[in-house]
Structures are given as structure tokens and as C-alpha cells.
Amino acid sequence: MLIPISWLRDFVDIDLPAEVLAERLTLAGLEVGQIHYLGLPQRQIPGIRQPPSDHLTWSRETVLLAAIQEVKAHPNADRLVLATVDIGSQETIQCVTGAPNLFEFTERGPLAEPLWVAWAGAGAEIWDGRSDTPKRTRIKGRKIRGIYNDSMVCSERELGISAEHEGILLLENEGDHPAGTPLQDVLGDILFDIEITPNLARCLSVFGVAREVAALLNVPLREPSDHAEMLGPSIRGQVELEIQNPAFNPRFTFALLRDTRVQASPWWLQWRLKLVGQRPINHIVDITNYITHEIGQPLHAYDYDLLVERANGEIPHIHTRTPKTGEHLITLDQEKRELGKDHILVCDRAGALGLGGVIGGASTAIHEGTRNVLLEAASWNYINTRRTMKDQKLHTEAGVRFSRGAHAALAPKGVLRGIELMRQNGGGRIAKDILDEYPLPEKEVSLPLSQQEVTRILGVTLSLAEIAAILERLQFTTVRQSENSLLVTVPPHRLDIHEDPVIGQADLIEEIARVYGYDNLPSTIMADAMPEQRANYELLWEERIRNLLVNYGLRETIGYRFTTPEQESWLNGDEDRPHFHPSEYVRITNPIAADKTVLRRSLLGGMLKQLDQNRRWRNRLQVFEIGPIFRATPEQALPIEETRLAIVMQGTRNLEPDSEDAGDSQLDFFDLKGLIHSLLADLQVAEWEERRSVHPTYHPGKSVDIWLQDRAVARYGELHPTVARKFNLDPGSVLISEMNPLALYATAEQNFQIQALPSNPPVLQDMALTVAKQITHEELVQVIRKAGGKTLRSVHCFDVYTGPPIPEDRKSLAFKLTYQSEQRTLTDPEVAKIHQRIARAAERELGAQLRS
Amino acid sequence: MKQTLASSLESIRDEAIRSLEDIHNLEDLHDWEIAHLGRRGALTQLLRQTGQLAPSQRPAFGKRANAIKAELQQLLEERSALLHERALMHDLEHGAIDVTLPGRHFHRGGIHPSTQTLRNFYEIWSEMGFQVFRSREVEDDAHNFEMLNFPPHHPARDMQDSFYTDRENIILRTHTSPGQIRAMHALSDNGTQPIRVILPGMCFRYEQISARSEVQFTQVEGLAVGRALRFSDLKGTIHEFAKRMFGDSVRVRYRASYFPFTEPSMEVDVECFLCKGQGCSVCKHSGWLEVAGSGMVHPVVLRNGGYDPAIWSGFAFGMGPERLTMLKHGIHDIRYFWSNDIRFLEQF
């Protein structure tokens, strides 16, 4: 919200630099996002950093308030005139200008009333009015159609006030400044752009901010006048008022002004509205806007005669109510609006006049010929106002304020101040009295507050007098209740202080802290008892897995929790059959994008999609993610969230295939298998076994489930070729794994025992066996181990071979066998004996033949 | 014959010494060794003929032959040392490589930058007695809003646009704060025990995805509840964190702010660690970076967590790891975090 410092000064004296005030406001919770300068220089204040402003500073020597005394025709040009300008020096200056709004003054001789303008002399810097993009320029002397000119009268655009460049700025010299006064002293201003948080609804006006300024600077606050000169007959009997739904509309007031004339607003009022970004229309409408910005009470003006007309000459009966079914309204913006049950209408007997708290109707709007003005100031329930704005997609100045909460106490002030300003500027007589229906009065809130409570929460000891003084700066009233407690009464502009004493006290303590200054409060180290310390084993376990996988060379990714059922169905290879049951998805009813409609049931979908994108950049990718998947169940409103680990690998085994020792071999099932086994071993997971896997995402012949007790906890293998194609990946190239990392924790041995280092040397021997092709490595190893007994320490298969001279239906497996005894050094004959025993067992049980 | 043998001995010696002079590389030296000292070398051959000498001459001849052998052996070693030295000198002189050619990379895996920053938080906060408490990402309206003192239709709800699900009142959490309620219920033993936890996790807001805003982001929330926790303790704790995170000399600024679930509420700024407060594009020339929202736990929240707010008090704070990571590493596009472009991840 834009707050001009010149307007703030109506209510509070400010004698410190604007930059310091902005900092003070920011620290007190009114964050000044930006300071806009109008003609004035940006001041550098020690200790305050601010972004350099690129505004135009009006030179105090060459950009001046000036008076045009006469406008003459240019002898050589129809579209130029010569202005005789008084800039406060002895001689007047002749200034050539093409401003169209001066043409009407030509050839009138000396003007009875001078035209007050902003004049810029030679050397002055201004914005180039003809440039479409902001561009600075300096005024230089030159002949224009034969007449020398070295100064100009300026437009708003040239001065950096607005984009207006149709004519020059004509202002009213309301301060009676002499010609030649630096323009800085007349129009120079600084505007704060303040972000108003929801608790600061009371600050959605200049006066609201002034109140904070007065409290923070501890200076007096001047209340705006609510005196109205009421000389007409009483409003009673001229309009009737009825509130049908006080919960939606707690208060409604009317004032009536008769025999006025709608006209342009005075220059100062137009100027202020322009500063805060409102377009002046006519004085009635402008004043409703002005009061909204000034004190935060939105007003609405009706053409009283149109109301009488709608009442067929009877007394208009205005009431507020919820809409009837099918009712609609044409609002001021000429939109026909369907109405809902949460809306509230201002109506007369002929129908709806406006959408309460948000926007007026077109049928009774003020127009040029309006003579009698009925002015409304009301208060509206913020929830309904919010709903109405949301339903109607309407964002109005009134709606913004009512939807945040405007105190009902403001309504009579607003209506009185508004009607008086209308009278002052348009004439007429104000009817005596206002109509004021207030069926649901705001409660007055009084709260006890003890000195100890302030100390308990803030950690600073303030005297009761100090506490009272701070609160009184914010217009709270305080009464001393006992030696160390106050009774604090909340002023009637605060809706944010709760009547519940515990909450209300917290509200008050925040006010004390804010005004005292957060920076001034002490900073301490907690002396409170340390709570019981609990390790988060799940997190520690996940972190351990992360570290291991990173050690193996994998990179962690974190994907979106969002996906689509379509993408997840690709994991099936067959799009017609959903991968997961549709009812198990957590569905987003307001998805932000077409590819983010549900929460994921699997980590793999997102990771495989990334793989497709990343493989352009690297010839080998090996990534993992640990994160939740989501499964909705019929039993519970909240879905089940379970942590999953997924691994995806693809690419060349050699990381730098372009190097001299490059090979082109690709990662395959056994690379992944080695990784998974390393992980299980390094995690000390015990008692697991592997079984072939049957899962539609995996190649049926190249995938394995890992079982722990009676539960499959992990799966790994090659991505099913059909699934690979769905994800635009080369079939046969992608290795994947999914597991439930927490399930692994169950059998993980935390206190695993080490093996003592053997004192006797090992004997290593190779053994190559041929077996029938269908015999598995595991079967063979089992036989070897059994026959080898305790002395056979390890069996490692280092080669599998098929082809000549091995018969076609057989394969050869080569093992490195390690023999070692705990008791003594083995002799060659001892080893040979066991070696033979193994070979014989393999032959007997599996038909294996020793290769020589 | 005798003369011949003795003189042969001398001529072998002379020839060997002379020819040694012409040896300039180790291979030739090896050949020389074989030719002169080897089993089939000239000297050995000659010694085999010792038997032809008269027995009385044999000792002298043998002695001389051994002396020559020792002499040649000595010369060989000297020559060898010299040639090794020369070879080394040659190698050092001529063996220079182009050291500017690229090295062969060692490839490691890596932790996602968000996890790295989270770990940084875990570490710092655990030193200060705050342990990790994680809670669910899909929440009900009660935990995400109502129990945190956001009544239905409260304007503060406008600050956090939610993702809704097909189940009534079930949304994706918009902040980690619902975890405050869950932590209090899980750990406070019906409002009788103090708590110090941090609540890290993914949050979701309905915002158009752009370089500056994402639909999901991680937050780390902190919560302390005790019998004597004060606003001054919050300031002290935050300052302690800032010192560990940004360095001992960091300056911290505290601004009043508004969050429904804390009161008094404050925003915490630290002096921009890139420009040291001098003003730069990252801190938008303010010299300050907003790093945390915080405040004293609102009495309504304490109540909803099972504590009596007249006896218990607490503070909470929330921070955004991605934002800090972005500030620290000059990341200008928040979309990098979840797109997992390997070229981004590899830089961490």
C-alpha cells in the first residue's frame, strides 16, 4: 500500500528522515518494501543500506514553481505558444511551449489569475517526455521556429510524477508559495510502499499508518475531524434502514446531502488520489475513495433521487439481506453477476443495489446531474466479504479492507467526514443526524496484564509504568489494578486483540515488544531444562544408506512428489492395465500442471523420466532417491506415507570411454547385483535370501526379490524391455531396484562381530568344472562348500565359459578356492585331498567334470 | 706359453678398460659385462687355462687374475653408476610431459544439495539440543491450519495457497508447522514434558512454477517448549544458529512480523554474507538477507498441543534450505532442485 509522507503529516509531525522512519516501520512489522521519491533526493543515512533509487531529483535551482502571467501566440507556429513566466526573478521569462492545455489562454492579455506551473530552466535534468522508454535529458537553449528558448514548463511525465504528457502540469498554489520556490518544496514527496500483513488490517489507511508512526516515535496524533455541518432537515423520514442479517452486516450508517453539485475534485484531493494510484472521477466518487484511503472506511454514494424514483416517490427503504435464489446484480463495472448464498446485498424494495462491502450497483450510481447524495458507511463480516470476492473474482479497495476486517466504530466517522467533505466541495445542505443501525455491536475488550507475564514471555523486566506508557502510545487505556497488574482496554480500531485473556495477553505483549523494539530486547541463552534426547533411528538409517550409496558412486536425486496415473501405468508396460489401483492415488483437485495430478505411488516413474533427459549429458548414470510414496486407503482419510529407496543405473561400465583404455562394455545385471549385495553386507543385514522375481516392471529372467524372514523387502534387476520403450529408453540397458529401507533395519546387526585375523597362511587353488547348462552357480557352490567343509574359506567364481571345446549343452565355471586352517599351516597333500573331495562331490551330485 | 697367458691377462685388462671408455649406455654396459666378466667372458676363459701353468706360477697368476677381475668389477660399478646418473639426468631433461593435458577424473557419487543443506541444519541444531522429528506430508486442515490458529476463512490463509485432494479437508501441507502439533502430541506426555525438535521436510504451495517459485520446497522448522522459555531465548538461540551457519561475526536483525501460530512473531535477517552488508544484487542492496520466520508459540497452539499456556511457553522458527543454498551458491533458478539435471547435481 502506498503511503505519501505528505499525507501522513496531516496526522503526525515527522521530523526525522524518511529513510529512518521507513527502517523503524519495517522493524515494527510494517515492512516498507520500497521508498518512492518524488523530486526529492534520496538521503544516505549511516547504518541504513538501501537500493539506489533511479528517480529524478528536481534541482532546487532550476526546477521551480512558476506563474504564467500571459500566453501569447507564437508568430511562426500554430502549435506553439509563448508563455510569459514569473519565476520569482525581477524579469519574467518567455518560454516556448506546445502544451495544448495552454492554447485556451492565448490572446487574453495578462491573466487575472496566473497559471501555476512547474518550470525547468537551462541545465535542469528532466525525463524526456517524447521518449517511450525512460530517458533523462538536460534542457539546452535553442531557437524554436525563430524564437530562442532555454527553459520549459513541464508535464507530469517530464517531472517523473506520472505517464501523463498530454499537457503541462497545472497546479493550484494552495500553500501561497511565491513564484520561484523550488518545486521540491511544493510537490516534493516520499511514498512508502508498505506490505500490510493480515494482523495489521488497521493500517490499511494513511491514518492507520500515522497511528503507528505516532506510537513508534512517541509523538502526538491528530485525529481527523468528524464534524459535519448539518443544517438540513433530519435524515429520519427521508430514508429507512433495516439490517436483516446482523452477522453478515453488523453496522450500517447513512448520511444525506441535498442540493449539491457534482464537480471535479479540488486539485489537492485529485493530487493525493493520484499519488496513491486512484484515478480522479468527480468529487463525490473521489471523496468516497479519499476517505477509504485516509481512514480505512470504505464509503458508497447513491443518487438519492434515483432511489426515490425506484420507490415510486415513496421513502426509500434500504435493507441488507442475503440473495434470493437466481438473483443477480449489474455492478458498477457493468458486469452482470450471479449471486450466491454467502453474498450480502444492499437492496431497496425494487431489488438489489449493490454487493455489500465489495462493489456498488450501476442502477443508483452518482452521475453528473446528481443533486442529492445518500452516503453509506457500513461494516461487513470479513469472511463473507472474502468469499464474495473469491466467488466473484472481484478485487476492490473496499473489499480488500472489509475482507481483512474494518472495525464497526469507523462507520459513523467515515460517513460524517465524507459527507462534510462533499458539502465543502460541492455545496448543499447536510441533513441533520445520521441513520445508524448497529444491531451487533463489537464488544469492548478489557484484559488484565501483569508485569510478571510480560517478563515471562519477553525476558525483559519492564516496570508497570513503562508497560502502561507503551500501550497508551497505541491508544490502549490502562488502569492499575494492583501493584503489579494493569487492566488494559482495547481501543475501538483493533480487531486483532482477543478477548480470551490468555490470547489477549499474548496480543498485548506483542504490541509491547514491537514498540519497545525487538532489537532492544535482550538476547539470552536458554536456561530451561533440556528435554529427554531421542535419536531418530529412521533418519539415521536413511542417512547411512545415503552415505553408502554415495560411496559406491551413486548420486542422490530428489524428484517431484507429483506424477500422473498414466506415467505410473507405463511401469506396467501395458497402459490399459493400471499399475496401481486408481483408488489408491491421492488425487490433487487443483493440479498446477497436467503432469502433476496425483501423488506418486512409486519413485521409479520420475527417475526413469529423468534418465531419459540426463542420458544426453553423460554416458553413465547411476542415481538413487530416498523419499516417500503415498497410498490412499478406504479406511483412513489420510494416506499411508512410506519411505522407499529406488536405484536406477544405465551406461558404460568404464566412466571415460573416450580414454585410451576404453572399453564399450555396458553395466549389466551383475553390476547392480554386486551393488545391492554390497549394500546389504555393509548394512549388516542378516538372514536374507533371493528368489526370482515376477513383477511387470522387471525383465522376468533378469530380476530378483530379496526376502527377509517372510517378507519381500527389495527387488532389483533389468527394466522390462516394454517398460523401457514407454520411457523412451533402450531396452536391455536400464537397471533398477526398489526397496523398503526401513524393512532392512529389522535384521540389521548393529553390534556385528569382527573376524579375528588368521595366523596361518591361506592356500589358493583354482578349479574349473563343466556342468550341464541348467545347473546354477548357486547349486554348484552349495555342493562345493559342503564338500570343502570348514577348511574351505571362500569360493569365488571368476569365469563362466561356453563354447568349444565345451559341449554345447554344458558350461564351464572357474573358481578360486581358498583353503585355510585355524589350527595350522596346511600341507600340499592335505589341500589336494580336500580339492579332490570337492571335485568328486560335484561330479557325483551334479555331474560336474573337472577341466584339466 | 706362460708368457702368453700372463700377457694375455694384461691385454684382456687393457682392452676391457679401453673399451669401457666407449660404453655410453646401460645395454652396452651389460654386453661389456658379459664379454669381460661373464661366465663365457674373456677373463673367465683365460682362467680356465690356469692348469697349463706351472704349479708355482699358478698362485701369482690367479692372484693377478682376481685383482684384475676385482678392478674390472669396480670399474663396471663406477661406469654403471655414471651411466645411471646420466640416464637419470637425461630422463629429467627430456622426460617432461605436457602437464597441462587433462587429468583422469575420479568419480564419486554425491548427495543432493537440499539434503546437504538439511544435514548442515541437523548438525547445528543437534549441537544445540534440537533433535529431528519428521511428520507426514499429506495433512488434514486441522493440523495444517486450524490447530495452528488459522481459523477457516482467516485472511492469513491467503498467504499459503494449498493443494487440495479428492478427500475432504485433506491437503498437502503448506509448511512444516503441522509437525509442531504432532511433535507436541507425540513427545510432550500430555503437556508435561519439554520439547526441543527440528521438523524438516517437504512442503507444497499452489504457485506457478517459475525461476523464483516452486510447488514443492523443503522447510526446517524448529520448536522448543519449556517452563521458562522467553522471547530473549528465541533471539539468543537464533543468533547462536546464525553464528554457526554464517560465521561468528554475523550481524542479525530482528523485525516484527506476523504468523498466526506465533506471537510475538518476527522475521530474522542476517547481514548479507556475500557482500558483508555493503549491498549487492543478491540482497537487493539492503545489506540484509531474510533467513527465518519465528516467534513465541501462540497460546492457542500450545493449548492445541496439550500444554497449559499459563505455565508453558515456547518458540518456533522456520527456514528454507533451498533459499539458503541458492543464496550461497548463486543459483538463480529454483527449478534446478527437483529437475535433477545431472549437470547441476554434479556440481555439489
Structure description:
The complex is a heterodimer of chains A (852) and B (348). With 852 residues, chain A is α+β, with helices and mostly antiparallel strands. Chain A has six domains: 2-55 and 190-217, Phenylalanyl-tRNA Synthetase, Chain B, domain 1 (2-Layer Sandwich); 63-187, Nucleic acid-binding proteins (OB fold (Dihydrolipoamide Acetyltransferase, E2P), Beta Barrel); 230-437, Phenylalanyl-trna Synthetase, Chain B, domain 3 (Phenylalanyl-tRNA Synthetase, Chain B, domain 3), CATH 3.50.40.10; 447-520, Phenylalanyl-tRNA Synthetase, Chain B, domain 1; 537-657 and 664-745, BirA Bifunctional Protein, domain 2 (2-Layer Sandwich), CATH 3.30.930; 763-850, Ferrodoxin-fold anticodon-binding domain (Alpha-Beta Plaits, 2-Layer Sandwich), CATH 3.30.70. In chain A, the strands form eleven sheets. Chain A has a seven-stranded mixed β-sheet with strand order 30-33-34-38-37-36-35, sandwiched between helices. In chain A, strands 3, 4, 5, 6, 11 and 12 form a six-stranded antiparallel β-sheet that branches. Chain A starts with a strand and ends with a strand. Chain B is α+β, with helices and mostly antiparallel strands and 348 residues long. Chain B has two domains: 2-94; 113-345, 2-Layer Sandwich (BirA Bifunctional Protein, domain 2). In chain B, the strands form two sheets. A seven-stranded mixed β-sheet of chain B has the order 1-4-5-9-8-7-6, sandwiched between helices. Chain B has a two-stranded antiparallel sheet with strand order 2-3. In chain B, a hairpin with a 2-residue loop joins strand 6 and strand 7. Chains A and B meet through helix 9, helix 12, helix 14, helix 15 and strand 30 of A and helix 5, strand 1, strand 2, strand 4 and strand 5 of B.
